[in-house]
């Protein structure tokens, strides 16, 4: 049941601009109350209504709960919020079920958003994840206890678990459980590889993405060629990666993926690639993880500020 607020000035119950108590017979109007004090208590309203309506016999009328539109909207919002993750997962599944050739750029973006949360993809660069998302195949094993790979079986794919749990039983009697986000199968090589142990599902409805050995090797090997390492005195101080953000090739360039703290600070005043327009914001959000004090950045900026050619960038 709705409870009226004590401060009725918050409720627009009258159009009368003058601060006076307006008594209107209930047959002509709903409620119109205002007071020169600026607020009315619930008992004031009750007395005023009682004086206008007299003693009205309400016996025999059915009781009904009072629902406000606000409450209904909140309930709708609650339903929306609870269904959002499910909707997101449905969209991801639709993208997964498409053949690699049928995946659009939007499909790949949806998959990227989902895959980057999984441990198997954590140490990969964005371009590697993007390439893997474009070639991955979706597989479902309905029953628990089903054998996916036999001991000694030749491997031809890399598997990542999206749902469920699998158990690997090794020949020496040891076993290991893998769950959502974990991976098993081949390593990025074209050599023949064989399974060590038996892989079987532990629960119903296990879901996987599989990437063929040829694709897995090509993508991870290609990235090595796509990276540019900057060396000083025989040590690598920065690693840049060439990225293409769309298939048309219009948005491409180099992006810094690793560097020493000193080089990361230096990069603040360099020209940033079209594929990395938010470098400065990213740096300011994360510098605490690799610098002991913000003074290291502040002092460098003050030093650069005295140089005319750098002042605008500072």
UniProtKB/TrEMBL annotation:
It is found in: Cell membrane; Cytoplasm. InterPro entries: cNMP-bd_dom, cNMP-bd_dom_sf, Ras-like_Gua-exchang_fac_N, Ras_GEF_dom_sf, RmlC-like_jellyroll. This is Rap guanine nucleotide exchange factor 6. Residues 252-314 form the N-terminal Ras-GEF domain. Residues 66-79 have a biased composition (Acidic residues). Pfam families: cNMP_binding, RasGEF_N. Gene3D superfamilies: Jelly Rolls (2.60.120.10), Son of sevenless (SoS) protein Chain: S domain 1 (1.20.870.10). GO terms for molecular function: guanyl-nucleotide exchange factor activity. Residues 26-43 have a biased composition (Low complexity). Keywords: Cell membrane, Cytoplasm, Guanine-nucleotide releasing factor, Membrane, Phosphoprotein. Transmembrane segments: none annotated. GO terms for cellular component: cytoplasm; plasma membrane. Residues 120-220 form the Cyclic nucleotide-binding domain.
């Amino acid at each position: 049941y709705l409870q009226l607020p004590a401060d009725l000035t918050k409720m627009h119950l009258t159009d009368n601009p003058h601060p006076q108590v307006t008594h209107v017979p209930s047959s002509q109007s709903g409620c119109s109350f205002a007071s020169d004090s600026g607020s009315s208590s619930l008992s004031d309203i009750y007395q005023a209504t009682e004086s206008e309506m007299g003693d009205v016999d309400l016996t025999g009328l059915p009781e009904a709960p009072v629902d406000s539109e606000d409450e209904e909207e909140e309930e709708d919002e609650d339903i929306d919020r609870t269904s959002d993750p499910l909707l997101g997962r449905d969209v991801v599944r639709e993208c997964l079920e498409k053949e690699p050739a049928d995946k659009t750029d939007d499909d790949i973006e949806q998959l990227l958003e989902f895959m980057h949360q999984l441990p198997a993809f954590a140490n990969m660069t964005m371009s590697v994840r993007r390439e893997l998302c474009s070639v991955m195949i979706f597989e479902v094993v309905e029953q628990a206890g089903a054998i996916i790979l036999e001991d000694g079986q030749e491997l031809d794919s890399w598997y990542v678990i999206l749902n469920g749990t699998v158990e690997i039983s090794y020949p020496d009697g040891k076993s290991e459980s893998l769950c959502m986000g974990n991976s098993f199968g081949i390593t990025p090589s074209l050599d023949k590889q064989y399974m060590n142990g038996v892989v079987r599902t532990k629960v119903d409805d296990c879901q996987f993405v599989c990437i063929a050995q040829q694709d897995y090797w090509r993508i991870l090997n290609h990235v090595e060629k796509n990276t540019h390492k900057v060396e000083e005195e025989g040590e690598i101080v920065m690693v840049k990666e060439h990225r293409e953000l769309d298939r048309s090739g219009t948005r491409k360039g180099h992006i810094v993926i690793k560097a020493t703290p000193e080089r990361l600070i230096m990069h603040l005043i360099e020209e940033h690639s079209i594929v990395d327009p938010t470098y400065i914001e990213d740096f300011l959000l994360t510098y605490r993880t690799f610098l002991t004090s913000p003074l290291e950045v502040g002092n460098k900026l003050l030093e650069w500020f005295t140089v005319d050619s750098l002042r605008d960038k500072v």
